[in-house]
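Regression test attached.
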Amino acid sequence: MQTALPHVAHPVVIGVGLAYFAVIIGISVWASRRTKTASDFFVAGHGIGLIALTVASVSTAVSGFAFIGGPGLMYNVGLGAMFIVLPAAVTNVMGAWVLAKRLRLLGEARGLLTVPDAIGARYKSPAAQGMAGVAILVGIVGYMATNALAMGVVINAIFGVGIGWGIWLGMGVTLAYSVGGGILAGIYNDVFQGTLMALASTMVFLFVLGAGGGLGSLSQTILADDPQFLAPWGKLTPLAALSFFFVFAMGSLGQPQGVHKYYMLRDPLQLKWYPLLKTLGLILVLLLYFSVGIGVKAFVLSGRMAPLGAPDQATPALLLSVTPIFLAALVFSGVAAATMSAANSFINIGAAVVMHDLPVAFGKRLSNELRWGRAATLVIAIAAALLAQLSGAMVAFLGIFGWGLFASTLVPALAVGLNWEGATRAGAIASIGVGLAVTLSLETAAYFKAFSFPAGVTASAVALVLSFLTFFAVSWLTRRTAEAAIDPDVRLIMEL
Amino acid sequence: MADDRVEPRSETAMPRRIDFTRRAARATLVASIAAIAVAYGSAFTPGGAPAWAPWLLAVGVPATLVAVMILGAARGHSGIGRLKIPFAFVFIVLASGFCLALALPGNEGPASQLWLGLPARAAFVIYGIGLLPILVLPVAYALTFDSQTLGASDIEKVRALSRQNVSGSP
C-alpha cells in the first residue's frame, strides 16, 4: 500500500479515528488486568468462546491488503485478482478438517502454546520445532514491517501526522495492548476490529452496487471499454491466476496467525460451527475487495471518477470522491484495524517463538515465560517499526514472501504430518529447510533482478511444490523410522 | 539444536490394517503435486508454458485440496463415510469451473449475456468456485461433526491418556 494514500484530515474522519483508538485502549486496559500467566498471554488460557474466536480469526486473516492493495490489484488486472480471495470458500473448512481438531486436542493433552510446539510433539523433535520457529520468525519480520508501514500510511492519512509518526503511533498503541494484555487483549480487540471491518466492507459493497445501478450495469460499462477485465483470469495468464489459487488455498494451512487460534477455543466441541461462521465472516469482509475493484473500474471508465494515479488509490479515491464522509471514516478506521490486528497477532506469535520454541530447540526452558514474553513482544515491535521506517522500498520485498514462506515451510510438516503416520522427522526437517532456502533465495534473486520467473510462475508456488516433494521423498526414504517416532497420545489424536 | 535420536521400529508391533482411504488420498496428493510441478517446470522451457500447463493446474489444484481434506477427515480405519458426496461435489465444482474457464471461448464484450451480473466465464468462476463450496462444505462439516470429527468420548479418551502420562511421568 506504500505511501499512496491521500491526507483526509476531515473532522468526521478524525473523530471516528479517535473513537476507534479510545475503544482499543479501553479493551486493552480490561484485558491486561486478566492476563496473569504465560498461557493467558499466548493462548488466552485456552478459554475463548466460539463467536469471539471466529470474529477474531476473521480479523487476523485479512490485513490492510484486503482493503487497499487487493482492490487496487483488481482495478489493475481485473478478475484475475479474485484468485487470491476465492480460496476462502474452501480454506476455513479445509483447515478445520486437517488441523483444528488435532491441534486443539494436542493443546488439551500437552498444553501446547505454539505452532512449532505441535511440530515438535508430532515428530518428537526439538530440531524440527526450532526450524519451524526460525521460519516463522523470518516470515514475521516481513509481515510486521509491512504492517507497521501500512499503519503509518493509514494513520497519516487520517490525522496528517506524517508516516514516521504514524508508524510509531500505530505500533505504540498495538504494543501497549500486546505487552499488557497479550493475546487476550488481541482477541477482544480483534473482535471489535473484525466487526468494524465487516460493517465497513458490507456498507461499501451495498453503496457501490447502489451507486453503479447494480452489478450488471457495472459489468456492461466495463465490457464496453475493457472486456478483458471481466475475463475469468482478467489480465493475468491462466497459469498465474491458478497459481494464486493454489498458493493461497494450500498455503492457508501454514499461516501461524490463523492456525494458532485453534488452541484457544474453550470447548473443542464448538469447532462444529467454526468453519461456517468464519467463512461467512470472511465473505463479508472481502465484499469490499470485489466491489471496490469492479466499481472503481466502471466509475473511471464512465468518467464518474478521474483515472487513478496508482492502483493503491482505488479505495481511498472511491471513498473520498463518491461515498459519504462517514462511510469513508469507517473504512479508514477499518484499515487501521486490519493492520493493527495483524501486527498484534504476529507480535504475539513472534514472541512465543523467541521465548519458547527457540529455547526448547536448544534443550532449555525459560523460568518466567510471561515476563520474557512481554520483553520479546517489546523488542519485536520496536524492531519492526525501525525496519519499516529505515528500509524504504525493501519493506515491500519483505512483505511479499511472508505468506509463501509460511506455506512452504509449515504446510507439509504440519498439515500433512499430523494426518499421516508415515511422515518422518527427517522429512519434516528437510521440507522446512527446503521451503526456507528456496523461498529466500528465489525471492531475493527475483527482487534484485538476478533471475526472472516465466509468466505465471512465482517463487512461493515453486517453493511450496518443492517442499511437498521433498517431504514425501525424504519420508519415504526414511520410512523405517516413522512408526516408532510418534508418542501414544499424539498417535491417538492422529487416529481420531 | 538438540539431537534428534531415531528410535527403532518395534519388532513385536502388530501388523496394521491397510487404510485404503488415506492411502488413496496420499497417492492423489503426491500425484497432483507432481502434476503441478510439471506444469511449473514446463513454463521454464523455451517459448514459455505450453497450452496444456494450465490444464494440469485446473485439475491438479482441486485434487490436491480435496486429497488433503480427505486425509484430515478420515477417522481411524472407518474412512470418510458420508463425506464422500460433498468432497466429490467440491472437486467437480472446482475442476469444472477452472476447465470451463479455460475451454469456453473468450468472447466477452458489450453484447455478452450476463449471468447474475457477470459474463458467463466470470460467473462460473465467481459464483461456482467462490460461492458454491460455501453452501456445501461448512454445512457438511457441521452435520457430520459428531459422527465423523469429534465427540465428547474422544475428548475424554485424550484427557485420560494425558492424565495417565502425567501420573506416569517421574
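Expected vs. actual: identical. Chain B has one domain: 20-104+115-167.
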